[in-house]
Amino acid sequence: DAGVTQSPTHLIKTRGQQVTLRCSPKSGHDTVSWYQQALGQGPQFIFQYYEEEERQRGNFPDRFSGHQFPNYSSELNVNALLLGDSALYLCASRPQGSYGYTFGSGTRLTVV
Amino acid sequence: AQSVTQLDSHVSVSEGTPVLLRCNYSSSYSPSLFWYVQHPNKGLQLLLKYTSAATLVKGINGFEAEFKKSETSFHLTKPSAHMSDAAEYFCVVSGQAGTALIFGKGTTLSVSS
């Protein structure tokens, strides 16, 4: 049973560019959340998707947007990249109403 | 508002000795609390969770934590450390099921032989 799958694993982008990160949730999970983990810090909540709608959002600017598809997979888009956006981006999935989050291994984004 | 404070940024123990990682929480209502572990270049793995049932929670790999409301604490313990326990540990708080997880800054556990 595959867990949460994220792609790509590593990415290097230039300031001002746009990036799209992808997440396939664990089988049976319909809710997807995204977290940003800066170096040496704990993950910070970006937003959560359920039934293809953004249900909750953390303290991140509008440059961060997302999407959830009918098959529950999700994308995280970041526009106008800043050096400070360099981080590990983690996707977590769970069944709706459950505390049982499963995390992916993340995408390491480096902005130069 | 909810938050967690991990009281130690780095803990060093010898193999075979007890482990104690300390966490205090703040929550305006009954919280759900978790401990996650992160090994280098790996995702986060759930060690254990408290969701208003028994206050002493047993997790995987011999870890356990006790929820103490009077002290607003949720410390993680293990009787005997293994080399494989060396990793980053995060204390996490959440409200109702489905709300965002709020992570502490993490505690790095080092285990020496």
Describe the 3D structure.
The complex is a heterodimer of chains A (112) and B (113). Chain A is mainly beta and 112 residues long. Helix content of chain A is 0%, strand content 51%. Chain A contains no helices and eleven strands. Chain A is globular and about 40 Å long. The mean pLDDT of chain A is 94. By secondary structure, chain B is mostly beta strands. In chain B, strand 10 and strand 11 (102-103) form a beta hairpin. Chain B is globular and about 40 Å long. The termini of chain B are far apart.
| Uncertain residue segments of chain A | none
Poorly predicted residue ranges of chain B: none
How does the major sheet of chain B shape up?
6 strands, mixed
Name the structural class of chain A.
mainly beta
Helix content bin of chain B: under 10%
Strand-and-helix sequence of chain B, N→C? EEEEEEEEEEEE
| Strand residues, percent of chain A | over 45%
Largest interface: pair, residues per side = A-B, 27 and 23 residues
Give the helix level of chain A as a range of percent: under 10%
DSSP summary: helix tally of chain A: 0
Number of strands of chain B: 12
Which overall shape of chain A is indicated by the principal axes computed on the Cα atoms? globular
Instruction: Write down the oligomeric state.
Output: heterodimer
Radius of gyration of chain A, rounded?
A: 13 Å
The major pleated sheet of chain A works out as: 7 strands, mixed
Q: What value does the average pLDDT of chain A take?
A: 94
Number of strands of chain A: 11
Mean pLDDT of chain B: 92
Structural class of chain B: mainly beta
